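Supplementary Methods. Inverse-folding protocol.

Structures were first reduced to a discrete structure-token string of length 269. This string, shown here, constituted the complete conditioning input.
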């Protein structure tokens, strides 16, 4: 089976331990693009954070960002947008702050926080995006945010995830992107649904869609894709959802998958 559309998660999948795209991965993606395969990024990151990687790869397909809450072209045109409902967002901010956990609030592709702390320092270094300190988030937030991110110790986050699932599981997606990041989006904002949107737009059947990921927020797109691929460093649930296990992110797993697949295609010709 060949594929015509490929979606790539960024962190712990396409990116190495230094949040860089290896030369091996870049070359393989260029090879795929030259073969006519459409390649996109599917990430929980902000659009502005994902855009630099898209430009580095020289891909111009719309990008899936905020876990699927925002699909935007490289030139800045929105194709799909589904924020977190305002009432639920404000309630979650109260719940999180009552437990002394840090929360990031994203509005109009900008990041807002109540105060600077070790989490904001780490996130700024990780995502390489600016942030704005607004003090009281409740007073600040007057429109639905694209996404909320709770940042902290994994054990605490697992507990609050259970609490939030009980209260909002029918309305919201509440999934880990990394062990220290618990991400909250609208129920319709998933990578799987976003990938289905792009496949339909380009008239590509799901059997000809491939997706590569590592974490819980990637499961929906691996299940949607005709070829779901997990990197070797993926968590067990992601591997269980995948059709193929490739090498780890630090061993250029994206390139290994692409090259093995294209080599098979070439040998058939």
């Amino acid at each position: 089976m060949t594929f015509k559309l490929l979606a790539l998660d960024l962190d712990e999948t396409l990116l190495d331990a230094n949040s860089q795209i290896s030369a091996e991965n870049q070359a393989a993606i260029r090879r795929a693009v030259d073969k006519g395969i459409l390649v996109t990024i599917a990430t929980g990151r902000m659009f502005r954070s994902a855009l630099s990687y898209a430009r580095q790869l020289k891909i111009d397909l719309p990008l899936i960002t905020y876990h699927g809450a925002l699909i935007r072209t490289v030139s800045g045109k929105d194709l799909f947008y589904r924020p977190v409902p305002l009432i639920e967002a404000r309630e979650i901010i109260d719940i999180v702050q009552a437990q002394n956990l840090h929360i990031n609030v994203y509005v109009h592709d900008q990041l807002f926080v109540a105060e600077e702390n070790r989490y904001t320092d780490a996130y700024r270094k990780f995502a390489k995006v600016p942030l704005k300190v607004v003090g009281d988030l409740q007073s600040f937030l007057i429109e639905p945010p694209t996404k909320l991110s709770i940042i902290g110790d994994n054990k605490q986050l697992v507990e609050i995830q259970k609490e939030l699932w009980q209260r909002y599981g029918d309305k919201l997606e509440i999934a880990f992107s990394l062990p220290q990041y618990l991400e909250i989006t609208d129920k319709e904002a998933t990578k799987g649904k976003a990938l289905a949107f792009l496949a339909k737009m380009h008239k590509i059947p799901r059997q000809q869609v491939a997706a590569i990921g590592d974490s819980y927020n990637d499961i929906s797109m691996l299940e949607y894709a005709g070829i779901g691929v997990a990197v070797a460093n993926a968590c067990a649930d992601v591997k269980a959802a995948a059709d193929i296990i490739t090498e780890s992110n630090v061993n250029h797993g994206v390139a290994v998958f692409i090259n093995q697949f294209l080599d098979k295609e070439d040998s058939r010709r």
